[in-house]
## 1
Amino acid sequence: MNSMLRSARTLATTASRSSVLRRGYSSESVPDRKVAILGAAGGIGQPLSLLMKLNPLVSNLALYDIANTPGVAADVSHINTRSEVTGYFGDDQLGKALEGADVVIIPAGVPRKPGMTRDDLFNINAGIVKGLCLAIAKYCPHALVNMISNPVNSTVPIAAEVFKKAGTYDEKRLFGVTTLDVVRAKTFYAGKAKVPVAGVNVPVVGGHAGVTILPLFSQATPNANVSEEEIVALTKRTQDGGTEVVEAKAGKGSATLSMAYAGALFADACLKGLNGVPDVVECTFVQSNVTDLPFFASKVRLGKNGVDEVLGLGPLSDFEKEGLEKLKPELLSSIEKGVNFANK
Ligand SMILES: NC(=O)c1ccc[n+]([C@@H]2O[C@H](COP(=O)([O-])OP(=O)(O)OC[C@H]3O[C@@H](n4cnc5c(N)ncnc54)[C@H](O)[C@@H]3O)[C@@H](O)[C@H]2O)c1
Ligand SMILES: O=C(O)C[C@H](O)C(=O)O
């Protein structure tokens, strides 16, 4: 979070560094990086496109959607920051959008309405994600893929199976974006603990739906005097954060602005890792040996090839241990649903 603010503050510096690059000098500290956003004209896609345009680590921003990308791209492209912006529209242009991408962010797909679970989106979004991943395997098989489309607990396994079939799967390069759960846990904890939110850290592990979202408030820093009862309430609020927004939007979609922020944070971390910045650690849903489940969200160190190291869970409270056992059957069944879909 702080690094994003720092990034924004360094825009001016970077703009002048970019003009140095344009004049033909090289700069090892800011390599060229292409980021493609698939679903760029949507509720998440538009603010995410804006935030990625503000990121000085991006040199080429490709905005792809099946509708409305020319307008979004024209609009964003007028912002005087480093990256060149290109809009791509429809199936025919997907390959061009993806070619040469270092990071592909996928917020394409339908959002929830009140009364729906994320799994209710499976029937539509599974097909969308499968199609986009086939194209990624063909046009940018080495890109880091940041999966936002729900249900993340199933769309990430779908992507993995598509890449396996195409012979391009690299478990170090596929990520389910669970950053919004961390963003929420930090905000809610800071409010309850009455500490400045900027300094708060809370790991969130498991998956990205209901009880599969497991915030580890026992590891929250700074350590504050928060009662057991409050921890239970904070856990529930974090697990239900998405539903809180869906209900408040009353049929007009789910979290878009906070998700764009979280997606931009995670993509920024991926870019920093690719660029060799040390000790970049984020929670994310990846192929994992941390539990007996094949995919699991935990802290991950990001590096030049994507995942550098999947970090363990650390010590859990009894309440968290119980939560971990409770989430496993649901998470496993969502993972299997994705695998089965991709292989049918
Ligand atoms: N991981 C998370 O924490 C998180 C948070 C919020 C939302 N989401 C999910 O993100 C997804 C998008 O949400 P939204 O609010 O932006 O929805 P939205 O309907 O506003 O936007 C989705 C966009 O995807 C586009 N799209 C559809 N099919 C496509 C395809 N084949 N290729 C490219 N683009 C395509 C649509 O044209 C639209 O512009 C939903 O599945 C939602 O549940 C995930
Ligand atoms: O809740 C949703 O459907 C969207 C997203 O997964 C969220 O956590 O906000």
## 2
Amino acid sequence: MHNSFICDCRMSSLSVDINTPPSGTENDEGNFMQEGGYFDDIFPTGLELDEVSDAATYYPSINYRFPEQSELRNYELLSKIGEGAFSKVFKAVDITGNGQVPVAIKAIKKKSVYIRDEEIDHDPEGDEEIKNSSRKQIINEIAIHRMVSKNSPHFTKFIDFEESATYFYLVSELVTGGEIFDKIVQLTYFSEDLARHVITQVAIAVKHMHYMGIVHRDIKPENLLFEPIPFHGRNGNIQKEDTFKLGVGGGGIGLVKLMDFGLSKRISSNTAKTPCGTMEYSAPEIFKSEEYSMKVDMWGIGCVLFTLLCGYPPFYEKNQSKLVRKISKGDYEFLAPWWDDISSGAKNAIIHLLEVDPKKRYDIDDFLNDPWLNSYDCLNSPNSNTYATIEDILNGSFDERTENLHSALSCELQKQVNTIPHENDSSEFIYMVEEDRHLRGSWTGELMMPFTLDLKRSSVYRRRKDKLFFW
Ligand SMILES: Nc1ncnc2c1ncn2[C@@H]1O[C@H](COP(=O)(O)OP(=O)(O)OP(=O)(O)O)[C@@H](O)[C@H]1O
């Protein structure tokens, strides 16, 4: 489903001047299409779906390097850096003079979103309804992305939005390290300190979301990106983690950012009912159709932590119904020899996260206070080069905000908590919901998101399984 993160920085060779807008599509103010769409107040580049659809015909047929470029107005796509089930993600630059820092653009083909809806909607009342529901999904993703990333470094920053006849374009901060998933593949598994470094930052991000009344619902290593820090594999071996430094990171992983809000949801009463997520990381209550809450994210954190520490996910079965049975019973093991050297503190944290009963499961504050999470092995080894050096600071791999994750945690949380709009005074979100009501057609409840069982890239698992087999 995802391509590896290959940051190819070559400029695309466009054969036309894409700074020149297509004729006949601008209004007097220079805005593309008619103003007044409900996106306009939320997103400066907002466009109305129907008006845009007609405009597609004005585009000259040009051989762009990427077809997604042809209808994109303000950015030039440079290279493809990722792919989701229904989208392609590109490295791009703003061509309107609003900054030269490269950004990431997720181009979602509308048709694929509509087809996905058709597959899962049992009784669609026609195209319009499907379009509206898809649009609602996208609005939801953008609004949540925009809200949560405003005041926290642990999310990819939301930057902009464009809509054309064929695509939704979501513009966000470009994170250059790649996915944590690929790091697990590269290193096979992480030291406990590096696992703490990653999962603490995920927990801070989740705390931020939960405080805003938003549940992410798709926490997995593929949705965790990182800013790189210099990496020197032990003895030149790139598959061995280097020294971990508190406040800096290790294994080439610095700041960690949570992304992909496609399944995120604002839940007012702390509960939600729509089954969704990536199967291996989904909590048992989802399969049991019970009401579930913010605690599903805690299960996701548990699955990620387990995977970071041993290199394979806690639940894996090719057969989906067997997988569901295993998850429902919380049937996982700390298999020897993989878990022999992993501390009881780490196992204890996982046991509390992978607790089948959501009422007994850790909530985000319980996890942030977990003793294992709040201790670092490197602090107990006097000879190790634990802290950031001048070199780290000079080469930018030192992140002041996380100078000492151990103590910065509470300070960071406090800072974030102070800037989070409280549930009741989140006018932006309320506004979005109000605007949603203006959608044509009726909105008939939530979509059932399909489970995506994708272990194609889980070479981690295969590698571990092979090793187990030959052990
Ligand atoms: N801001 C970003 N910076 C760098 N890479 C990114 C960024 N956003 C996305 N990517 C890359 O593109 C991939 C796909 O993005 P994303 O997960 O948002 O797409 P999706 O269609 O929602 O995927 P999925 O099918 O998992 O839901 C990511 O896994 C990541 O490798």
